[in-house]
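Sample 3 of the quickstart, ligand PBG:
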Amino acid sequence: MLRRPRRNRKSETVRNLVAENSLSTNDFIFPLFLLEGEKQKIEVDSMPGIYRLSVDHMLKEIEECMNLGIKSFDIFPVVAEKHKDKMATQSANHDFFYLKALKEIKEKFPEACIMTDVAMDPYSTDGHDGIVDEHGNILNDETLEILGDMALAQAETGIDIIGPSDMMDGRVEYIRDTLDDNGFEHVSIMSYTAKYASAFYGPFRDALDSAPKSGDKKTYQMNPANKHEALIEAELDADEGADFLMVKPALAYLDVIHLLKENHELPIAAYNVSGEYSMIKAAAAKGWLDGERTMMESLLSIKRAGADIILSYFAKEAAKLIK
Ligand code: PBG
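Result:
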């Protein structure tokens, strides 16, 4: 036998020498859930180890993460029912706790990279990402204006990356134009390019209490049956000025991550979503899986598939192991 692949696996050091991929804390964006008020820290039932935090706690959490090497955060607001309405008005209100907290966070940690989410669902009484008309249809073009206002208000707080997660057609261009017209050409857009109508978002909707009140998101989020359609979305987002293309969820869509990486020059992000986190946590709690090893293998697989950036609820835990 002249060729023996096992020679390159003979010791930890040799295995590391020939490793094609590795994880770094630089790869991660850690999603965080922001609560109104202060001194609030409430665990998400379906996501053990993940908390909804008021801004005082969130500042501490960010500091801890920064010390572990995690420097990027995606912040989502938990909006009380009383603040919701049909047009998601609070999303562009500078007196609303989310925008005030973003400003405070950027002032305290100017070197951190803060990403925000643009979609109507957390602020909407309908729980949809766009405006719902009297027949239950999601109005695309009318929604763009709200998304533009929301993105601009977020940019005004000093954040670094806007994350449109709504899947309306034309929103990247609309947001890019709005930002540029107002002097925010330096604010980046990480577009949720291939965002699928997925059952894996369940725990996130528990965390934010943002599940749709009626219907589902299948007329705007992609059909899990489709892969090549992601190329259409990617081409549009790139042409419309996106700086990053995202695939979401990650683990059930590794083929889509790979496809976008092979076909586009822009950095590819993958969102390792709430349900993917909860599955591993649940199996580990039962003793059916080794939680740490399953976590690291999953994250590495997302990287191997072609992701340059991973948004993951495991970011902090993984950073402790990488250190
Ligand atoms: C809001 C949004 C969702 C997620 C990120 N932004 C939920 C949804 O579209 O219903 C899901 C994230 C996760 O499950 O971790 N548009």
